[in-house]
Design goal:
Distance between the termini: 17 Å
Radius of gyration: 22 Å
Low-confidence stretches: 36-43, 272-276
Oligomer: single chain
Helix content: over 70%
Order of helices and strands: HHHHHHHHHHHEE
Largest sheet: 2 strands, antiparallel
Strand order of the largest sheet: 1-2
Shape: globular
Structural class: mainly alpha
Number of strands: 2
Length: 276
Amino acid sequence: MVNIKQNPFSLYDFLGYLTPGAIFFYGLLYVFNHSGPFTLFICDVNQYLGFDKPAIYIPFILASYTTGHFLSFLSSIFIEQYSIWAFDYPSRYLFELKRDKKELKIRILYFILSILILPIWVCDCLFSKIGIRVLYAKELEKPLVDLLENKLKDFIKEHAGIKDKEKIDEAINQGFFRYIYHYALENANSHLPKFQNYVALYGFLRTITLITAIFYWRVVIHVYKGTLSYYYLFLFLIPYVFFMGFSKIFRKFTVEVFMAFSVIYHIKEGKLSYLD
């Protein structure tokens, strides 16, 4: 019998998409209800989005769940891609690996992306100057880096069959994380629930980050109209707070994979130190 390691579809997975979709819908409702020309149109919609009519429950849930999937996809393009361009994959910056220089095309795309999620970009640039970034995107401690690098190099040599030292170093500096992750998935069953929880949580926070960044542009409209207040300045920080949460969980997920790998791979024998 095949042992299926992936957890079955759960309420947790369902709410992870339903909640962002519902927040997005009600955010739109709030924004347009305070947008002059749209008020009359939204008043008609408002009576259908209220929970006083049971007939709306199923359509609302389905629409929110579907929209949540769409927003999650967009957040992987905008929010996760920004974090990668800003400070690289966690599997790389944890080891302080040297970053490749961005091509001109990438720099242009990075600039455009930064404008689209302006509050995150501005706050990240400002607060990184005073060391806030270490709260959610810091490298590993040196002794731990040395331990993991030794095991990674031995693993790539013995398990992946790459004997050339330069190619081993190249594998460490490039895309080795997926290989390590799938090895841990296959051989560290006790860590699997934690992996899945981290993936669901950082996906949820990534989507909420995108939603708050989208509604930030409503703040821009208020500023343009001359109605700036401390309330809108507070809203400016909300996307960045969620972005910090996403980045921190993304990092913790990567660290958990490395820790799982480190305890199941025996460097001397090139075998599992224990079987789950």
